């Protein structure tokens, strides 16, 4: 990356679970952990391990110069809780279509 900014991605050996309002939204034993300079660790979960039927696509889009443009999904009581990079920058291609949540429990 540039100017001392660094992103690393690796397969996590941890099991993660995402629960909101008592409902399990995702559970995976194969998440990717993304570590980025100045940001908290984030776990990117394969779409097969996410309850996509509970999420509604949002019109929100954000741009990161290091990762690309993110798309968001919401729950009725939690706007833009989930995001993914459908077309990430080449340096972070592994996270393509994996979903990331603001709150994740480690198991």
TrEMBL record:
Coiled coil: none annotated. It comes from the Bacteria. Transmembrane segments: none annotated. Residues 16-103 form the DUF427 domain. Pfam families: NTP_transf_9. InterPro entries: DUF427, DUF427_sf. This is DUF427 domain-containing protein. It comes from Streptomyces djakartensis.
């Amino acid at each position: 990356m540039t100017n001392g900014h660094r992103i690393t991605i690796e397969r996590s050996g941890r099991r993660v679970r995402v629960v909101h309002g008592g409902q399990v939204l995702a559970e995976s034993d194969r998440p990717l952990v993304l570590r980025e300079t100045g940001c908290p660790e984030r776990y990117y979960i394969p779409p097969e391990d996410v309850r996509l039927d509970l999420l509604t696509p949002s019109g929100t889009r954000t741009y990161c110069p290091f990762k690309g443009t993110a798309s968001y999904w919401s729950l009725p009581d939690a706007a833009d809780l989930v995001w993914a990079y459908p077309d990430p920058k080449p340096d972070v291609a592994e996270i393509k279509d994996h979903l990331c949540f603001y709150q994740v429990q480690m198991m």
